[in-house]
Amino acid sequence: MDSTVFFQGWGGLVRVVVAGALGYIALVLALRVTGKRALGKLNAFDLVVSVALGSTLASLVLTSSVALAEGVTAFGVLLAMQYLVTFLSVRSPRVARLVRAEPTLLYRDGFLLQAMRQQRVTQDELRQAARSAGHADLAGVAAILIEADGTLSVLTSPPDEDLH
């Protein structure tokens, strides 16, 4: 077995430590500058950006052909794109529909099986959500929704009619 599998020299280790520490600091600073949205509960769009940031950090740390400046620039581009899309989604309903998931009604006076299939949620999961919200059964539950971030919300009063 080739010994370079285990150790390729001190230069590579020093690069990982330096690039990792500086890349991490740059990422934390960039996230702090972009605001709470980048650090809050994730919707699908935010999750994609977070995964891309993690992948960029990993490439920066482990790939010697990626310079620190390139990695930090990639962080900036990803976060600027996130800012731009969220800025536009607040001002344009069309953009908002493209990037934001809407809550979906899964239970109201019985299980809404088509919506449950589309969201890949079982009856047992809805019963568990009701129990977690303090209901022994579904008798005291007016509705259960799956939110944009994937959490289940249990309502004791009827939801607005405009939910999907």
Short structural summary:
The protein has helices at residues 10-34, 44-62, 68-91, 93-99, 113-119, 123-132, and strands at residues 104-107, 143-146, 152-155. It is mainly alpha-helical.
Task: Name the poorly predicted regions.
Answer: none
Count of distinct strands: 3
**Structural shape:** elongated
Strand order of the largest sheet: 1-2-3
User: What string, H for helix and E for strand, traces the elements in order?
Assistant: HHHHEHHEE
| Helix-residue proportion | 55-70%
Largest sheet: number of strands, sense, barrel closure: 3 strands, antiparallel
Approximately what portion of the residues adopt beta-strand conformation?
Answer: 5-15%
Number of helices: 6
Structural class: mainly alpha
Detailed description of the structure:
- This protein has 164 residues and is mainly alpha-helical.
- The longest helix has 25 residues, at 10-34.
- The protein is built from six helices and three strands, in the order ααααβααββ.
- 56% of the residues lie in helices and 7% in strands.
- A hairpin with a 5-residue loop joins strand 2 (143-146) and strand 3.
- The chain has helices at 10-34, 44-62, 68-91, 93-99, 113-119, 123-132; strands at residues 104-107, 143-146, 152-155.
- A three-stranded antiparallel beta sheet has the order 1-2-3.
- Helix 1 runs antiparallel to helix 2 and helix 3 (68-91) packs across helix 4.
